[in-house]
Amino acid sequence: MNYRINVKDSAELDMLDAYNWYENEKDGLGKTFLKEIETNLLLLETNPMLYQIVYKNVRRALLHKFPFGIYYIIENEIVNILSVTHLSRDPKNWRERISIN
Question: What's the predicted TM-score (pTM) here?
Answer without folding.
Answer: 0.89
